Amino acid sequence: xxxxxxxxxxxxxxxxxxxxxxxxxxxxxxxxxxxxxxxxxxxxxxxxxxxxxxxxxxxxxxxxxxxxxxxxxxxxxxxxxxxxxxxxxxxxxxxxxxxxxxxxxxxxxxxxxxxxxxxxxxxxxxxxxxxxxxxxxxxxxxxxxxxxxxxxxxxxxxxxxxxxxxxxxxxxxxxxxxxxxxxxxxxxxxxxxxxxxxxxxxxxxxxxxxxxxxxxxxxxxxxxxxxxxxxxxxxxxxxxxxxxxxxxxxxxxxxxxxxxxxxxxxxxxxxxxxxxxxxxxxxxxxxxxxx
Length: 291
Fold this sequence. Notes:
mainly alpha; ABC transporter involved in vitamin B12 uptake, BtuC; 2 strands
């Protein structure tokens, strides 16, 4: 088979960009599950809220994309903290199914409200002027904004991994999930730490939403379209594994891009086929630890 290199590299680029969002979203899910033991099915709705908050900030407050990268995650993360305090804190000692059902219901309510108000056609959000244009790499053209998305996502993911795995704060977070009574004995406010952790995980989803807005447009269903794939990424990488979420997110995005070039009919299912294979051969995931 003759290989069209520009087309192949174009699909690889698209896969890498999708992988950036898979990694960032699955990272937020992994943080929430690893620290709180909650399967946050509202993650897709919170990703969508990040895009909408960026749109509102531009339309009603005149704040551009760069401000939205900071303000939108804070606003949506604050909303996540309210959800944790009002609902999720009562579910930590119960089966995972209760948290999944609650967050799934919240996702449907949030998505329904936005769809009722704004429809399903999508709202445009402009690429910031500093990141318009493309670069000629010789074998393909690389849009500046998409290069920024890949690099910035990787920086955020690795920074989050470093904080959780290599700093004292991360050690406190991990200890609080294993033995909260012992951590309280050191004078640490464990409930507050758990609340802020959930807010941080939600903020990561909102950050991904802001970054996605110029590429995919602002749409009430944008979270529902991606969340199932992201859950598959988390399962493959290992539930609660930070590095697993990062590596698997970027890796599966590239695999998806290659599949679109060599076997387009399988591009929508290849991630789920890989998930089945991983679950059969390694139930804890590629980077997960057996229970």
